[in-house]
Specification:
By secondary structure, this protein is mainly α. It is 57% helix and 6% strand. The chain has one domain (21-273). It contains 8 helices and 5 strands, in the order βββαααααββααα.
Length: 276
């Protein structure tokens, strides 16, 4: 049975100031807040001071937004944005790329660890779980925005996004969201039950699984780049996924040569962040 989807992206608008609350922003915020709760719980279990988590959340959100925006502008529509650089700042007009967001998140987490004296690989292992969950929440937001939709389909589970056209399409946002939720659950189970893993092992699984899923799901999407890829077997999104997968494979091998994790030394470099 086909579903006609015409959800209003705006939940409500605050009168006088004319400020709109959107579903996308709500799911984005809820995802990060649940991730913050998970990190806070893990820090307390390891007797680590949680005072730096607020700044970590700020670093992660900032890195995700800046990276995702630059990724979209420079990877998917470089001709336009290099000719109109001021429009890169107009993030409210839409246009965020998950590959850029992932890279921005990694870089800002590295910077955070450098400043606040945390072990990057071990902190990243913990953060991968809520990050995968956040990715799933963001894709639900995309669904409410009727964006990042799939190719036309004749299958009964197709959805007509009325804000786009009257063609039944793959609800690829839902496919991707479910994939990320399942990956988050898988990573959580490994994180909890495989205690002798080396540093970076969870991060390696995250990179491999998320971006393999992305390559598969790209087959259900129309090309999102502004330039033609007609002579290529792969989309821009698939090409961009390959370096992440290769990095994950290399890190997976290296993780077996790194020290196994231990309770209170998994994240901190020294005792300055341990509760007294």
């Amino acid at each position: 049975m086909l579903l006609n989807w015409n959800a209003d992206p705006v939940i409500f608008t605050i009168p006088v100031i004319n400020l709109s609350l959107r579903w996308y922003g709500l799911f984005f915020a809820v995802g990060f807040l649940l991730g913050y709760y998970f990190a806070n719980t893990e820090f307390k279990k390891r007797n680590i001071n949680t005072s730096g988590l607020d700044m970590l959340l700020l670093f992660m959100i900032t890195g995700t937004l800046i990276g995702a925006r630059l990724g979209h502008c420079l990877a998917y529509d470089p001709q336009y944005y290099l000719s109109h650089p001021i429009d890169i700042l107009k993030i409210w007009q839409g246009g965020l790329a998950s590959h850029g967001g992932g890279l921005g998140l990694i870089l800002t987490t590295l910077l955070y660890c450098k400043i606040y004296k945390y072990k990057f690989l071990n902190l990243a292992d913990m953060l991968c779980i809520p990050t995968a969950f956040v990715g799933g929440m963001i894709r639900i937001g995309n669904f409410f925005n009727s964006e990042i939709y799939g190719k036309p389909t004749n299958d009964s589970y197709g959805i007509i996004f009325e804000r786009i056209d009257n063609i039944a399409r793959h609800p690829v946002q839902i496919y991707e969201s479910l994939s990320y939720f399942l990956i988050a659950l898988f990573l959580y189970l490994v994180y909890r039950n495989y205690q002798n893993r080396g540093s970076g092992f969870i991060l390696s699984l995250f990179l491999i699984s998320v971006f393999i899923a992305r390559i598969i799901l790209e087959y259900f999407k129309p090309e999102q780049a502004s330039y033609s890829m007609t002579e290529s077997l792969f989309t821009v999104g698939q090409y961009l996924s390959v370096p992440f997968i290769l990095s994950g494979m290399i890190l997976c091998v290296l993780s077996f040569k790194l020290p196994a994790l231990k309770d209170n030394s998994t994240i901190i470099l020294n005792d300055t962040n341990t509760k007294k």
